[in-house]
Amino acid sequence: MHIDFHDETNSVPTDSIDMIQRLLSFAAEQEDITPESEVSVNFVDNREIQVINRNYRQQDKPTDVISFALQEEGEGEMKIIGEDIPAVLGDIVISVDKAKEQAEEYQHSFERELGFLALHGFLHLLGYDHMKKEEEEKMFQRQKEILDGFGLKREQ
Fold first, then answer.
1. What mean pLDDT is reported for the chain?
2. Which terminal Cβ of the chain has fewer Cβ within 10 Å, N or C?
3. Rounded Cα distance, 37 and 145, in Å
4. Which residues are CB-neighbours of 62 under 8 A, at least 6 positions away?
5. pTM of the predicted structure, to 2 decimals
6. Looking at residue 153, what is its pLDDT?
7. What is the distance of C-alpha 114 from the center of its chain?
8. Residue-by-residue DSSP string for the chain
């Protein structure tokens, strides 16, 4: 899977970006996503993600991760046709500030928090959600399975 990284903060260590590359590639294999698929991961600060959150979700506050799925079918939209083109799954936007805050709050590493947020955003691109209790249980269980399988457990 091709992952395009953009670090607008110029603060995410190369090792963390490499880990996210490996984690999302592992998750894509686990979810049977074609290797030709594409996704972008964008690292921003709290101010930038607050603007995005306000504009797209009408929530005027910073959040940790937002995903924009490109393959999502909206109500009344036609199904995307054509299996020969690479699947552009969408964009994941992560607040580096929030990741640092949450790593400290949950008492695990910044790298583990970045991995969790990247995977969480990735699963949203694949259609997982947590608006209803059943969906939340399914998504959070899948997150745990993938993180554990990759070796990025909570205590890291």
1. 90
2. C
3. 22
4. 46, 47, 49, 50, 53, 95, 97, 98
5. 0.89
6. 75
7. 9
8. -EEEEEETTS-S-HHHHHHHHHHHHHHHHHTT--TT-EEEEEEE-HHHHHHHHHHHHS--S--SEEEEESSPPPTTPPPP--SSSPPEEEEEEEEHHHHHHHHHHHTS-HHHHHHHHHHHHHHHHTT---SSHHHHHHHHHHHHHHHHHHT--TT-
Domains in the chain, CATH or no CATH each: 2-70+85-150 (3.40.390.30)
pLDDT digits (tens, 9 = 90+) for 2-55: 999 999 999 999 999 999 999 999 999 999 998 999 999 999 999 999 999 999
Residue 155 in this model has a pLDDT that exceeds 90: no
Count of C-beta atoms within a 10 Å radius of residue 110: 16
